[in-house]
Amino acid sequence: MTLLARGISRDDFIRAFRFCKLPIPWPNTIAVGNSGGPDSTGLLFLIHRYLSENSHVPNLPRRVVSLHVFHGLQDASEEMAKRCTEYASSLGVEHHVLKIPWSKDGFPELPTEGPVEHNARIARYRVLFDGMTKANASVLALGHHADDQVETSLMRIMKGSTEDGAAGMKHCRRWGMNFGNLGAGSPMDYEGMRRWIIRPLLTFPKDRLLATCEENKLPFVQDVTNFQPELTLRNALRQWLANDGKQSKSDEHLLNVSILREKLTRLGIGIDPSGGKSQIRSAVNALALQADDIDHKVDFILSRNALRSPPSTYLITHRSLATIEGPKVQRSIVLRILRYASFHPWGSLSAQVNRRSHSLTQIVDKLWSGNPFEAQIQPFCAGGGVSWTPVAIFGDKFRFVDKHSNGNVNINHTESFGWLASRQNPPSHVAMTERGFVNPLRVDITPRIVEKLDAGEIAPLEILYDNRFLVTLDLTTISSDIVKRIRDGTSQIWLLPWTRWFWPKIVLKSQGEDDVVLHSAARSPEHLLLFNHLDLSEIKNWQEIYWRPYEHEIVSPWIKVEFSRPLTIL
């Protein structure tokens, strides 16, 4: 096969890999998702070559492992797995074949019809996560390239995304709390916040990956289902782009070209299908660069303008808001605060009001409307599980404002005003019980504690509470009396909500006795405040932000409660 494109050189890949820089030092091991196709085959080769030739360079991964997901959805699955194993072995790279356990361990049944690709994708990421655990890797590299980026952008636009979504995939992202999650309580819930996904090939088109494989004589297989436009929207878009805008009748049920063109025109973001794939690729890349620039602006604004407020909340004055100009930056500020304060899983669209234009416009209009008390704006929630409350601010303190019967509010001349974002109030426990719902804020953690004790494990027990707080229990120092009582069934340990911020308090419940509060303190840990320009003293100041409740804090040395959602870009 003769290709006009040139392969990816060493220098090309070094520059591309730098785009994937983590906000923390590189771990020792990096995993590569290896399907056996030209993209992942080329990526495994490039990463292995880069790390092997730069073993003397500090702060780089020292080891690469290959992870292949065996879906069992095609007759060719066995052959693809075999090819991947052979190629990884030829490089001397540790390789794992990860079979999806359909119908077991919470996985769905083997999909044969309906949303096959959707179910397979969720299952694939779940087993990749488990494979990373097995390989002791906290970073997963994926082979998405510039043409995939174009398809992703158009898919998101077809599904109603705005300019934010049209920017496509990030070079580096935190795994998050539910990316590939098959159910609440899985190990992914918080561990995903310590893991990363990188995509080093996003700046390279497909033909350069093919050229890389040809120049280096890399064996790969082609998944024939990727070229069947009637199967998925991505395939239909791929075929449409390859045919210069001519559509196949077989995929008309998936891709309505007239609707796509209408949405592109309405967005006005410079994507013109008539210009061909190269023009679209350049437009999407420009959107991605613009999104990165806005993200860094938002980092700076949020770190410089936040005031002291309780863990899990964000407080900002109206004066600070008034200095933030431009609808794109304002919208991004709101999205970041939503993701921070929401109780929905970090990284999910639910935590960002599914990026609905109507909801975001409502929030932006109210926050930038001027004095909320003069405008008589009441506390409100526009989605995402976040409440927005106007407050009076004096120095580093704030208070809620009562309205008098005549409609006036009590604010003196020494106070300014601003907005506090916090978790939305849930339905009452009584109301949830009457409707037959389980209250997610009242959690009996006794079984998990007993299981850990019985296993004799010395590692702390970690429990994610309300997708917001990480509760860490050092069971090696727990009271022997408490252990005896929970083992014989006379007592239980519960996580219950307290304060108006719905922090978790750890409570010992015993038959015929009053509840005993074991721990009620919470804080924001240093590693979530990784703004590049903050020095250590400023980070300590953030950690000291605390709301003093009416009752005294109780601290147990074997319990730690930390707010677990980062405000930073990653």
TrEMBL record:
GO terms (BP aspect): tRNA processing
Name used for this protein in its record: tRNA(Ile)-lysidine synthetase
Domain tRNA(Ile)-lysidine/2-thiocytidine synthase N-terminal: 30-239
Keywords, alphabetical: ATP-binding, Ligase, Nucleotide-binding, tRNA processing
E.C. numbers: 6.3.4.19
Species whose genome carries this gene: Lentinula raphanica
Transmembrane intervals: none
Reaction catalysed by this enzyme: cytidine(34) in tRNA(Ile2) + L-lysine + ATP = lysidine(34) in tRNA(Ile2) + AMP + diphosphate + H(+)
One Pfam family cited in the UniProt record for this chain: ATP_bind_3
InterPro entries: Rossmann-like_a/b/a_fold (IPR014729), TilS/TtcA_N (IPR011063), tRNA_Ile_lys_synt (IPR012094), tRNA_Ile_lys_synt_N (IPR012795)
Molecular functions (GO terms): ATP binding; tRNA(Ile)-lysidine synthase activity
CDD domains hit by this protein: TilS_N
Keyword Ligase: yes
